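Q: Here's a chain of 431 amino acids. Please give me its 3D structure as tokens.
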Amino acid sequence: MSEHVKDLLRFATAGSVDDGKSTLVGRLLYDTKSVLADQIEAVHRASVDKGLATPDLSLLVDGLRAEREQGITIDVAYRYFATPQREFVLADTPGHVQYTRNTVTGASTAEAAVLLVDARYGIVEQTRRHAAVLALLRVPRLVLATNKIDLVDYDEAVLNAIAKDFAGLTRSLGFREDSVVAIPVSALLGDNVVERSAHTPWYSGPTLLGHLESVPVTDPDVAAPFRMPVQYVIRPGSFGASAGLHDYRGYAGQVAAGSVAPGDEVVVLPAGIRTTVTTVETADGPLSRGHLGQSVTVLLADDIDVSRGDLLAAAASPPVVTTHLDATLCWLAERPLKPGARLLVKHGTRTTQVIVGALGELLDTETVSWVDPPAQLGINDIAQVSLRTADPLPVDDYADIRGTGGFLLIDPPTGNTLAAGLVGNPLVLHD
């Protein structure tokens, strides 16, 4: 498989509270000239009002009043910026332990993650927890940004010790050695964020931005077998159907894995009916091939029953259709999860009822090991779980195809998301 270098990089920031994520994001935006002049002026005024000698760049990203008043980030904020080399979508996630669920949200579509640690304290429990979540979600590349290096006098030995500890942690979580990079930075002063620092002559690696600009990003789902959940059936007279084409029947959705082209044999799941693709098109016209992430309309050779919630998949490599899921669950709700709970599961574009079976081993994020099954799951717990669904679902192991290996558990009365689920056990721990 050839390396697939993308013009757009989606990455997330994570780390413990007060490690300086908002300041780092602000520094990236400020130094890449990705903010308007009036925003910069407002930050300078606010910083002067706070009695600060240097601009508080975290104000560029902490837009909520509660965040500004408390000095913390309490939600996932998506930022968009670009350099001549690449465009970026950044998910800035909160650091407090009670908002670990937001890290799950922000990292779920990330192709890389920047995990911050405070150079004064090194690896802490929340660092381990976030690293475990990133490994669980199969984020392929990880950057350790050791921040506030100015507060340890740019001491090479201190920073090397933190990098060594982190290498041991990521190795135990299954990250490949060549997928993890350690970069010493000072978000406040700008050391090694966008510009190289004269204070770290012993560091020969890239700046943080330089690494993000050049890292080759391979989304495993690009080369995976074709998957597309059907979101909408387009019939004559509906939006997108050409006028006068009375026999038109198209199936619209976003390609969740692989690609699709006219002539490809596909299977409609869960029914299991095979057919051939005749046309792949968008509102701008037909395509020779639809790729991962594209929203397309697929036309099929046979007049078969396909509805919203069905999955179009490569006939040669279809997913498993099952009502029994052995999965890894990130519990995100305040209320606990107990066996026997009746909830809803959302997989792709299909939602059905689900019963929670036995709880399996729990992930101990402090020791980075699986421990005995708990009686119930509390907020931020990660554990194995058995689920039984009312309707069959076409699923892949999350470790194989993220696009069809993930699902959500939903509270039926409120519609609130309770958990993020991953089919199988994508977190392989090593001693």
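Q: Can you summarize the key feature?
A: Residues 156-172 form the longest helix (17 residues).
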